[in-house]
Design goal:
Layout: E1 6-12, H1 19-29, E2 34-39, H2 46-53, E3 58-61, H3 68-78, E4 83-87, E5 91-92, H4 97-108, E6 112-123, E7 126-129, H5 138-148, E8 159-161, E9 168-172, H6 173-178, H7 191-201, E10 205-216, H8 227-258
Parallel strand pairs: 1-2, 1-4, 2-3, 6-10
Antiparallel strand pairs: 4-9, 5-10, 6-7, 6-9, 8-10
Helix pairs in contact: 7-8
C-alpha cells in the first residue's frame, strides 16, 4: 500500500494561540502532502503568523468572516486529493498512526465516506471523551460507558456510527462532492448534522476509529468573541441544528416512503 494521499484543510478564526501547536504536530507526524489554512479574517493576526512561521502552508486570507461551512468548501475547492483531512485549529495530533489508521479505513471500505478518531478533552486534569453524538450506536455507546467508568478499551476495528465531529474528520472527496459539501446557509453549527444526514441519505457510511485518538480543546475560537455575541451564536446554532436535523430526517423518510434514491457518485 502506498503512502496516504490527502490534503489537510484547517479553518481558522482567532486561532493564533492554538494553530501553531497543530501545525507543529503536522510537521512532525503528517505524511508529505499539502496543508491549506483558510483564515476567516481573524483580527488577532492568525494569518500573519501562518505566513511568517509556516511558509510551506497554503494560506487563504478571507477579507470577511464567511462562516465555517463556506470556508471548508473553499478549502476543498483548492485541494486536489481523493481524501481531505478536515481539522480544527485546537486539535493536537501526537502520533503518525492517526493518519495511517484513518486512511486505511477509507481505503479498505469503499462505501465509507468519512472516518474520525476518538477525541479527548482535558477537564481539570482528567481526560474525557468528546462529542457524544458519535456514541449513539450500541457498540459506540458501550465504548463511551466504559470510559465513563474509568476503563480505557480500544477496539481494534472501526465502529459504524451515524455522526462524527467535523473538527477532526477524514473525508472521501467523491462523497463530499456527491452531497454538495457543507451547507453554507449555516454560518456556525448545523452544517455538521446536515452533512451526515445527507451522507446517510445518499447511502454512505461513517466510521469511528477507536484505535487512534487526538486531543481537542473545542470552541476556542468561539471563546474569543464577546459574551453577548457568543450567546447569539449559540442561540442561532441551536436553531441551525434543529433545522438541519428536521430537514435531513424528513428527506430520508420521504425517500424511503417514495422509493426515491438520490444520485450517488462512485465510491472512489
Amino acid at each position: 500500500m502506498g503512502p496516504p494521499v490527502f490534503t489537510i484543510v484547517i479553518v481558522a478564526y482567532n486561532s493564533r494561540a492554538h494553530l501553531p501547536g497543530l501545525l507543529g504536530d503536522l510537521r512532525l507526524h503528517a505524511p508529505a502532502g499539502r496543508t491549506v489554512v483558510v483564515d476567516n479574517a481573524s483580527p488577532d493576526g492568525t494569518a500573519d503568523l501562518v505566513e511568517a512561521d509556516f511558509p510551506d502552508v497554503h494560506l487563504v486570507r478571507n477579507t470577511v468572516n464567511f462562516g465555517y461551512a463556506r470556508a471548508v468548501n473553499q478549502g476543498f475547492a483548492i485541494s486536489e486529493s481523493p481524501h481531505v483531512f478536515l481539522l480544527n485549529p485546537d486539535i493536537r495530533i501526537r502520533s503518525a498512526a492517526v493518519f495511517e489508521a484513518l486512511y486505511n479505513c477509507l481505503d479498505t471500505e469503499p462505501g465509507v465516506a468519512v472516518a474520525g478518531p476518538l477525541q479527548f478533552k482535558d477537564n481539570g486534569g482528567r481526560t474525557h471523551l468528546n462529542f457524544t453524538w458519535s456514541y449513539w450506536t450500541p457498540r459506540a455507546f458501550q465504548l463511551y460507558i466504559s470510559y465513563l467508568l474509568g476503563r480505557s478499551p480500544r477496539p481494534s476495528v472501526p465502529l459504524r456510527v451515524a455522526f462524527l465531529n467535523a473538527g477532526c474528520l477524514y473525508i472521501r472527496r467523491s462523497a463530499f462532492e456527491a452531497v454538495s459539501g457543507l451547507n453554507e446557509k449555516y454560518f456556525l453549527y448545523g452544517e455538521e448534522p446536515d452533512l451526515f444526514l445527507k451522507l446517510i441519505r445518499h447511502g454512505y457510511e461513517c466510521r469511528l476509529v477507536p484505535a487512534v485518538a487526538v486531543s481537542h480543546a473545542r470552541e476556542q475560537s468561539l471563546r474569543s468573541v464577546p459574551v453577548f455575541r457568543r450567546l447569539q451564536f449559540r442561540l442561532m446554532g441551536g436553531l441551525n441544528i434543529a433545522d438541519a436535523v428536521i430537514r435531513g430526517v424528513a428527506n430520508i423518510i420521504i425517500d424511503r416512503l417514495t422509493g426515491r434514491k438520490p444520485a450517488q457518485a462512485s465510491h472512489q
